[in-house]
Amino acid sequence: MEVERSRDFLLQAKRDLEQARLSLREGFFEWAAFAAQQAAEKAVKAVFQRLGAVAWGHSVAGLLEELAQKLPVPEALLDAASELDKAYIPSRYPDALPEGAPFQRYRRGEAERLLGHAEAVYAYCEGVLSQMDEGGAPPPPRGGA
């Protein structure tokens, strides 16, 4: 029997958001991008944990698409997640880019945008978990209950 760890995932997601903000403030834009992606991924995995479902992989968009089979997920959140996914590898590995190191390719505006996307994913997931904490069932799946 697995232990339900949604709170742990959400706490780490919040910490990853803090790291993204710190990295952004200090000019480490590639790390801000990666931390934003990680925050979003862990926030979504927190919801899967609460639902007792398995969440495999690192694609925030893929995870949200799977979650959308159980809960309503706003289309704008799926779009934001797709952009976050693009930072998973290129923000860390030079060979994922045509040339240059990640720190040379990520800019403040991109890091700010990705942080905003991660904050939106986090807020959505926190809201779903809060609703469940209050004794409410999660929203019905798309297309009816």
Automatic annotation (TrEMBL):
Gene Ontology MF, one: DNA binding
Keyword check for DNA-binding: yes
InterPro entries xrefs: HEPN_dom
Keywords: DNA-binding, Plasmid
Domain HEPN: 10-121
Alphabetized Gene3D superfamilies for the sequence: Nucleotidyltransferases domain 2
UniProt signal peptide: none
Protein name according to UniProt: DNA-binding protein
Organism from which the protein derives: Thermus thermophilus
